[in-house]
Every structure is written in C-alpha cells, then in structure tokens.
Amino acid sequence: MAATALHDDVPANAPVPEALPVGLTPAPFRLPPSAAHLTADQVEEFGRELDAIRQRHEDDLGDVDANYIRRMIRLQKNLEVAGRAMLQFGVLPPAWVGGVAALALSKILDNMEIGHNVLHGQYDWMDDPQINSRAYEWDIPAPSTQWKSGHNVIHHTWTNVVGKDRDVGYGVLRVTDQQPWRARDLANPVTALVLAFIFEYGIALHGLEMEEMLEGDHPLDEAKPLAAAIRAKAGKQALRDYVLFPLLGGPTAPVVLSGNVAANVTRNLWAFMVIFCGHFPDGVEMFTEEDIVDETRARWYLRQMLGSANLTGSPLFHLMTGNLSHQIEHHLFPDLPARRYADIAEEVREIADRYGIEYHAGPLHHQFGTVIRGILRLSLPDGTREKGGRFKVRQELKKLTAPVSRRVDELAEIGRQRRAA
Amino acid sequence: MRRVLGSGVVTGLTTPHGPSRYLAAINPLWSLEGGRAVVTDVTPETPDTVTLTLRPDHRWQGSSAGQHVRLGIEIDGVLHTRTYSVSSSAHRADGQFTITVKRKEGGFVSGHLTRRVAPGDVLACSEATGDVVLPEPRPDRLLLLSGGSGITPMASMLRTLADEGHPGRVTFLHYARTEDDVAFAEDLDRLADRLPDAEVVVVTTSAGASGPLTGRFSPSHLDELVPDHLDVPAFACGPSGLVDAVEDHYRANGADARLQVERFTPPPLQATAGPGDGRLTFAASGLERDDDGRTLLEQAEDEGLTPEFGCRMGICHTCTRHKESGSTIDLRNGRRSDRPDENVQVCVSVAAGDVVMDL
Predict the structure, then answer these.
(1) Would you say B261 and B233 are in contact if contact means Cβ atoms under 8 Å apart?
(2) Which pTM does this prediction carry?
(3) First to last CA, chain A
(4) Based on the structure, what is the number of domains in chain B?
C-alpha cells in the first residue's frame, strides 16, 4: 500500500522511462507506478481487449447461467431448511454442529454467490421477476436498495479513490497510508476485530453515511428514512433468528438461539475475511482524486485491476466466496455472472502479463495475513517504526491530549478565581 | 393451507424471501402468488399455427370471451413475455384454457411456441384481461369480423356462445390468405351447427381464390352479408390494415359506437433510423422531444426529469428503465434493443428512431 505514495513523485511531463521504446511518448496523465511504462495508446488498447472479453461473455449468456443461479437458490433454500431443522434438535451436539454449518453455509451462499451477485444486475438480462437487481432481497440487515447505491454506484465507480470510495476502511478503519493518521486509528485492531464479528450490522450502518453526517457533510434528516428502513429490516431478521425459531424449539429455545447466533457470526467472520482481502492486501493500489481526472473507460479498467486482489483456491472455495475471490474480474465486469469469472481470469491474467501490469493474487491465509499486518501497522502514525519512532508516538499522543489538558487547566483556573472571589 | 402459509408467522419465519421461494425449492410450480401454467396439450391447426392447452394455477380467475393473457416463456435463459388471446370457451369446465399461436415470419417467440413447446413445459401466465368482450346480456344479433390470427378471440366468442346455446343471430366473417390458413376450420363448421342461427363466411384474399366473396375487406362484403350491419353490435380483430378499414367504414357512417376493435399489430420493421432521427416520448411524464442523439438519460434530464442514476457508465444498473416501444442502441457495444417492453440502461442508451420510454 505504501507504493501509492510514489505517485506524487512522477511529474505530469516525466521524461520517457527507459522501458518505453524510442519514439513513444508517455501517457499525458499520471498512471499508477506499476503501469507507468504504458503509453496512452497502450492503455486504450488494453481497454479494448477487456471490452472484447466482456462482449464475448455477454453474447454467450443463456440457459447455463440461468440454470446455475436457480440451482444455487434451490441449494441455499435446502441448506437453510436443513440447518434450521437440525437446530431444533440442537440439544444433541452433532445436530447443533450440523445445523450451524448448514445454516451458515446457506447464509454465505445467500449473501455472496446469490445476493451480492444478483443485486449487481448479473442476472438482469433474464428478465426473471424474482432474480433481478430490483426485486431481490437478501438475508442480511442492510436493505438491498441502500446497499446497492453505496456498493454498486459508489464503491464500484470510485474504487480505491481515497476520499470518494467509502469502502476504503469503511469510514472506521485506516487501511492505507493515504488516509491521514488520526488518534482513533490507535484502535484500528480492536475496531477491525469488533467489525468482523458484527459485520452484517457494519454493512447496514455503513449505508447511513454517519461519518459524513458527523462531519456536517450530510444533514441528519436525510438519514432518518434510511435508519427506519434498516431498523425495519434488521428487526425482522432478528425476530426470525433470535425469537421465532427459538420459540419453535420450545424448551430447547436457548440451544436454537445459540445456533442461530453462531451461524450469523460464522457468516460475518467469513464475509469479513473475504471482503477485506479484495482491496486491502499488500500491493493493492489506492488512488487520489487527481488520478481520475478525465479518466477513460480503459483507465477505469486499469484502476479496477490494480486496486483489487484475487484469492487462489479450489472451485468450492471460489463458490464459498461468492466468486469474490475473483475480485479483479468482478471489478472489471461487475455485472457479468460471477460463475464466469474463473474462465475470464485466465484471459485477464494473460492480458496483464502481456502489458506488464501487476495481477495481485494469493491464497487466503497469505492475503489475510498482509491485511492484518496492514491494520496493525496503520494504527500507528507513519514512520513510528523507524528510528526515533517512539518519540513520534509520544508527540502524537501529546497533541491528542493537549486540548484535554488545556481544558483541565482552564477549569482549574476558573475554580481558582471562584475561590478567590 | 394457502392461508397458513400466507400467515404472519410463516412470513416472519421466511423473511426476507417469503414462503413462496421455499415452496419453489421443492416444486417450481408451487408459490402463493401463482402466475404459472403448464402446457398439457399441443395441437397443430395449420402448417404454421398451433393451439396450446394450458392448465393455469390458482391465480387464474377464468376469462371472458375476447380477453387475452400475457404469457412468459423462457428461451435460452431469458423470459420473453407476449400477449395472446384466449381461444377457448369462457365456459370450459376443466379449468384449462387454450391459446392459438401463428408463427410469424422471423418471429422469435412465436417460432418457439409453435415448434419447441411440448406438454409439461411451464409458462408464466397472467390473469385474463381486456375490455373487448361479449356484452352482457348477449345481444340478439352479432357481427364478428376477423383477419388472420385475429380469429382467436372470435373463436373464443363463438365457442362461448355455442356453450350458452345462444339463440340469437351471429354472423362471423373471416379473412384468410387461403383455405389452408384458416385455423379451427373444422371446428368452425361444428360451431355453426351448434348455434341455431349462425353463419360462418371465410373470405380468401390470395389471388385466384374462388367463392362468393374474395379479396381484401370491402364494405360491400358487409352490405351483402348483413345489409343492416351498421345497426348490429360488431367486433373486429386482426391486422391494423383490416381493422382500420372496418373502423373507417363505421366511422364514415356515424356508427362507430357499434364497433369494438382489437388490433394485432405486426412487429415493427427493424428501424433503419439512427440516433437523432426520431422523436423521444417520456410516457410517464407526458413529455416529448426531438431526439438529439445524446443518451436517453441526458435528454430526460434536459426535460427536467430526474430519473434515478448511479455510475453513468453502465455498470451499476441503477438507471435501468422500461422501454415501451422503439429501438435503442447500447453505446458500449452497439447492441440494439428492438422489441417493445424491454428494459434498457438509459445512461448508455441512445434512440434509433422513435422511442417511447416509461419515464
């Protein structure tokens, strides 16, 4: 993530880098450092190659995709029914474990391979009254309409542009050194841990844009109907998982309740891990608002590619991530059915190699490891791990406490004056 | 059972998907809302016409003679919805109904329905709708006039009247290219026998046809068959050319109150017009303008409309809107949307000729 700082070092009219064949001029806009060897024409050609992939897959949409998503929906329903049924007998430990596993799997499928992808409009071409981005509602507290505007519109258009993409740290975490360090970032690791456990509610609250409200960029009134919609949806979800199904269990209600909590938390932790590996591992680039001035579709592709990271694994692993393990392909073609990403990835990787553009990918444990390291490192102000860093932390903390001590001094002064009077 | 499944508790237990989605996981035909029909029989009528017998689910409330249904058929993953007249009697007792489909030249959906559909296939099926129906009480005299596939609602009316033992005088005048193109030919004769005072006349329009009446519709045909036809309640259904001619005749004689019509418009020819050639109509807001070649979204905004939008580059699907008619082109790949009732992303679509948008 540190690499992005280099941007500022490359002047707009930088001399032709050595890698560039003689006679070619560099792009008249700033390219990310790892793509700085490309000319403007090459970038556009790169874009055309990706457009061609998109076209080929769009032309090929059909029965296979429709049957696939229907099969997934059926599988999810069957898993959910099985899970909830087993949890009714949850007093028997194997039934509890099996029930939690089936219910968690069903929720993961519902949220990731079905909900996320259907809400992206990946299956809108089917014109199915249920399986489309306007009608589908998912098993998560965030109402689909709110999530779509925050995710499909803001995150996917302004991906990794610090200050525009609200998913850069979700407004509560520091995930890149392009975000200036603030005192609250000391809590980065704790915030991340808490967020992981309550991720479903984090996603819902993220839609409220509380950060912007606290900073006065958003009137509070705008949030009221949004908050009401979240309360209504979250309430129904909670009523189902934490009241109705436990009540069905009669005397075993606490067992059913614990199983439902466990399933929700399992889904939360898994979704958190997968999603954080999409944009926050080492090497993934962040962008500034200047980087996207007059951005063409080809440069948008380039930004999506450099700003995302894939996870490697088996087909089952990809399914369990809702194919978000193919984060790069998802960001290039967010509305193509995700079941196609694995095939598309081979073509995209070949293009990336040919253009000498980095293609970030790694196994989950490695990628998530770098995410955790980043969250820990970024909790401290920049440069604190270098020589004299400890002094710097003290300085920062002093700055933090200064207003408080000033206030204490003032109060003491007031007290002294009162006593004197 | 349906009441239990639709209860608040079951809805609460199945939120946010609702009970129907779980039922559908067991059997794709099960749902509380309904709206499906199973094909139970496929009968060829003419070389390019078939009658499909459908068994609709509980959503179906029966039909009145002359009404139509919207049927959805999935072809290669895409649901295509078209409107078809019911061709069976309103009194059919087994809860089924029929539609009769003629394969159109290059017709994608009609081609599929006439050649591929087999018993057991499932279609999406609306309730029956339409205001052009036999009046209640039945009038003493009736004139039914149709051309080509416009015969289907007329067949439903005749069958309904036959089932009622309608005693009044009914004249049915049908125009077809040749004798072979007449759907239900045998059944029409039987119907004429069942109705005590019915006359069925088929006029063939192709050159070299013989018979008492030939050629395209002319008011003289009516003068000959029903001299006082301007006083008789009449129904006309078929291609626009025929229906327009009949309507002109009634209007010219100040008798248009007697006539009810339904047009089976042939599919519009592939527009050759390009961006900037046509007229844009924003139907929901009643606004119109000359298309200037920019995207539908930009032009709607010029008119002061504020359709929802997101990325303005075609990735987020926020701006997807219903196109009622006309052709549009997707700027990203040049792909055309030529059929009516398709959804288009207005931020990346331009009009090719006249377009009516649900905006």
Answers:
(1) no
(2) 0.86
(3) 59
(4) 4
CA neighbor of B98 nearest in space, from B58, B74, B65:
B65
What CATH number has the domain bearing residue B158? Answer: 3.40.50.80
Residues B1 and B52 in one domain: no
**Taking CB atoms and an 8 Å limit, are A156 and B311 in contact across chains?**
yes
Q: In which element (H, E) is residue B80 found?
A: strand B78-85
Neighbouring residues of A192: CB distance < 8 A, sequence distance ≥ 6:
A173, A372, A375
**Closest of A106, A325, A328 to residue B21, by C-alpha:** A106
Is B134 within the bounds of a domain? no
For chain B positions 192-211, those within 8 Å of chain A (CB to CB) are: none
CATH number at residue B308: 3.10.20.30
Q: Would you call the peptide bond into B137 cis, given omega within 30 degrees of 0 as the criterion?
A: yes
pLDDT of residue A25: 64
| Per-residue confidence (pLDDT) for residue B214, from 0 to 100 | 79
Q: Is B30 on the interface with A (CB under 8 A)?
A: no
Question: Which tens digit of pLDDT belongs to each residue from A250-299?
Answer: 999 999 999 999 999 999 999 999 999 999 999 999 999 988 988 999 99
Q: Are residues B13 and B78 in the same domain?
A: no
CA distance B182 to B191: 15
Rounded-to-integer distance, Cα A379 and Cα A190, Å: 10
Amino acid at B36: R
| Contact yes or no for A153 and B15 at CB 8 A | no
A153 CB neighbours in chain B (<8 A) are 310-311, 316, 318
Q: What contacts A115, CB < 8 A, 6 or more positions away? A: A136, A138, A139, A140, A144
For residues A79 and A106, the answer to whether their CB atoms sit within 8 Å is yes
Measured distance CA(A107)–CA(A91) in Å, rounded: 22
Q: Residue B74 sits in a domain of what CATH number?
A: 2.40.30.10
On whether residue B274 sits in a domain, the answer given is: no
What's the length of chain A?
421
Which tokens hold the place of A94?
């194997």
Mean pLDDT of B109-128: 94
Amino acid A6: pLDDT: 36
Tell me if A124 and B343 make a contact (CB, 8 A cut-off).
yes
Q: Residue A364 — very low, low, confident or very high, per pLDDT cuts 50/70/90? A: very high
Give A410 or A160, the one with higher predicted confidence. Answer: A160
Q: Which residue has the higher pLDDT, B208 or A370?
A: A370
- pLDDT tens by residue, A395-406: 766 776 777 777
Query: Are the beta carbons of B285 and B359 closer than 8 angstroms?
Result: yes
B22: its two tokens = 């779980």
Q: Determine the structural domain holding residue B88 and report its residue range.
A: 36-125
The HSE-up count of residue B6 (CA atoms within 13 Å, CB side) is: 8
